[in-house]
Amino acid sequence: MTLLRQRLAAIDSTRGVWVALVITLTVGGVLVYADGGSLFHQSSIVSMLQRAAGLGIVAIGQTFAILAGSLDLSVAYVISLTSLIAAETMAGSEGNVPVAIAAVLAVSAGIGLANGLLITKLRINAFIATLGVGLLIKGYLEQGYAGPAGSVPTSVQRLGYDRIGPVPLSFLLMAAVAVAAWVVLQRTRFGHHTIAVGGDLDVARLSGVRTDRVLIGTHIICSICAGITGLYLASRLGAGAPRVGSEGGYDLESIAAVVLGGTVLAGGRGGVAGTVGGVALLAAIDTIFNQLAVDPFFKQVVRGVVIIAAVAIYALRRRKAGRP
Amino acid sequence: MSATETGNAVPVRSEARRGLTGIGPILVILAVFLAAIAVRQPEFYDPPSLLAFLKRAAPLVILAAGQYFVIVAGDFDLSVGSLVTAEVVIAARLIDGDPALTWPVIAVMAGFGLMVGLVNGLITTMLRVPSFITTLGMYLILVGAVYTWTGGSPRGALSEEFRMLGRRGIEGVPYLQQLPYAVLVLAGVAVFAITLMRADFGKVLLAIGDNPRAAALSGARVARARTVAFVLSGLFAAIAAVLLGGFGGVSFQVGAGLEFTAITAVMLGGVVLGGGAGSVTGAMLGALTLEILFTLLNLLGVSGALKSAVQGLIIIAAVAVGNIRRRS
C-alpha cells in the first residue's frame, strides 16, 4: 500500500514538468511563429536536443544522488577532468579510444567512491564532502592545465555532431542512459533501496537496507554519468578543456534540472522521467529565447525564476495533498 | 571576541560549553598557522602589516558572519557571491565617477542587499522552497540581471571617495601609522553580530536550527527569525561589496565563488551544516584562519592555482575531525 502510494507520488510529482514543457513549447512555438521563425524547424530541434544531451546525462546521475537524500557538487570538475583524460589518452589515435573510455569510467567511478566514502564512513555532510572533492579536482586542473589539451580522433568527434534524421547521436546516448537509469530505479532492488534511503535513512537501515552501500552506489553512478558527459564534451570540442564543466555550470544546473523535474531535494521522491522533462524544459526555454533573439543573459534570469516557481508550486501541491 | 558566553541563567551554561568546545579547534588551527607565519616572516606582526592583513580579510570575515546566521538556522545562502558582484557593478554604474553620489549609492547598495535577503527569506519560509533552491535561483537571477543590465561588460566607475573605504584609513595614528576603515567596519560588524547572537534573537535562531518544530511549538516565530537571518546575510554581503569594490576593480569576477569560500569559513569555525550549533565568533575566526592560510601559502611559494585544492582538503578535514570529536 505504501509502496503503491509512493509510486503514485513519484508519478504525480514528475508529471507537472511535462505539462509545463508542452505549454512552453506551444506558447513558444506561437511566439516564434509570430516573430517569423519556426520553432519546429529541423535546425532548432537539433539544437534543442543537443543542448539537452550534455546536461541531461549529468542530471540523470545527479537524480540518483538526490533521490538518496544526498547531492553532488563535484560533477562540474569531474566533467572537466574526464574531458581531459579522454582527449589526452586518445591523443588523436583511434586505437586508444577503448583505453580512454575505460580510463574515464575508472577515474569517475573512483571519484564517486571517494565522495561516497567521505559521506558514509566519515559522516561528512554531502554538500561539504562533494564541494571539498570538487575543489581538490579544481586545484589539480588549475595547477596542471592552462588551456585545452589532448585531441580526439575524428571518428569520436562524430558522436558530437552526427545525427539520424533530426535526432543527434548525443541525444540517443542520453536517452539510453535515461532508460537504463529508469530501469535501475523502477525494477531493481538497488533502485528501491535508493528511494528508501532518501525517504528515511534510519527506517531504511532498521529495515535491513545496507544504507552505506546504497549511498556509495548512487555517488558512483552520479560520477560515472558526469564522466560520460566529459567524454561527450571532449568529442564535441575535439579536445579536453579544464574549465568546460565549471563554465557550463553543470554542478548547480544539474541540481536545478532535477528539482525542476519534481524530485524532492531532501530525497525519497521523484524520478528520472521528471529529470529528463526538467532538462527538456530548460533546453526548450533556451532555444525559444535564441529564436526570439532575446538578450542571452536574460535567459539566466528566467531560469532562476522558473526554478524557484516550479519548486514553490510542488511544495504548495504537496501541502494541499496533505503530505509534509 | 572570546568564547566566554557565560551568563547567570542556568540554561545558558550548556550553551557556553558548546560555544567553547566549538571554538577550541579553530583557535588551535589559527595558532598553528600564526606560529608558522611567525617563523617564516616575523615582519607580519608589525602593526601596519597586521592591519593590512585584517583589511584584506575583512570582506570574507563579514560574509562569513552573514552566512553564519543563515546556516545556524538550518539554511544556506548561495546567492551572496553573485550579490557582491551585482552590488559592485550597480555601484560603478550609478556613481559613474561622481563623488557626490558616493553615500547615496552606498545607501542604495544596503537597501538592495536587504531586499535580496528579504526575498530569499520570504520565498524560503512562505513558499517553503528549500533555501538551497531559492538562493540558487537568486544566484542565476542576479548574475543574469547584472549582465543584461550592463550589456555584458561593467560600465561606469567608482568614485575615489567610494574606494577610500576599502583602501585607505585614518592616517597618523600613533604606533599603528594607519587605521584602515575596513578594519573599523569589520570591528563594527563583529560587535553587532556577537551582540545579536547574545540577544534573544540569537537564542531563537540556534533553537530553530536545532529543531524547528520544537522551536515553533515553544512559541518562537520561526519564519520571521529565518527571514531576518537572510536579510542579515544580504546586508552583510552589501557591506562586503563596498569594501571589495574599494580594493579591486569593477568586474564580474569580484564575487565569483565567494559563497562557497564563506560557507567553508563557517564550517571551519565549527558551525554545523544543518544548524543548531556553533558560534558566530567561530565563523569569523574560520574566515580569518582561511585568509591566514592563503597568506601562508603565498609566503611558502605555493602557486595560487593550488589554493582551491588546499581549501577543499581543509574543509573535508575540518568537518571530518569535528565529526569524530563529536562522536567520541
Automatic annotation (TrEMBL), chain A:
Cellular compartments annotated: Cell membrane
Principal place of residence: membrane
Family matches, as InterPro entries: ABC_transp_permease (IPR001851)
CDD domains: TM_PBP1_transp_AraH_like
Keyword Ribosomal protein: no
Membrane topology listed for this record: Multi-pass membrane protein
Any one GO MF annotation of this record: transmembrane transporter activity
Pfam families given in the database record: BPD_transp_2 (PF02653)
Cellular component aspect of the GO annotation: plasma membrane
Keywords: Cell inner membrane, Cell membrane, Membrane, Transmembrane, Transmembrane helix, Transport
Transmembrane domains' residue ranges: 16-34, 55-79, 99-119, 126-146, 166-185, 214-234, 297-316
Protein name: Autoinducer 2 import system permease protein LsrD
Organism whose genome encodes this protein: Rhizocola hellebori
Lineage of origin: Bacteria, Bacillati, Actinomycetota, Actinomycetes, Micromonosporales
Gene, per the UniProt record: rbsC_2
From TrEMBL, chain B:
Subcellular location: Cell membrane
Pfam families reported for this sequence: BPD_transp_2
Residue spans crossing the bilayer: 20-39, 60-80, 100-122, 129-149, 179-197, 228-248, 306-324
An annotated GO cellular component: plasma membrane
InterPro entries registered for this protein in UniProt: ABC_transp_permease
Bilayer disposition of the protein: Multi-pass membrane protein
Source organism superkingdom: Bacteria
One annotated GO molecular function: transmembrane transporter activity
Keywords: Cell inner membrane, Cell membrane, Membrane, Transmembrane, Transmembrane helix, Transport
Entry protein name: Autoinducer 2 import system permease protein LsrD
Species this protein is from: Rhizocola hellebori
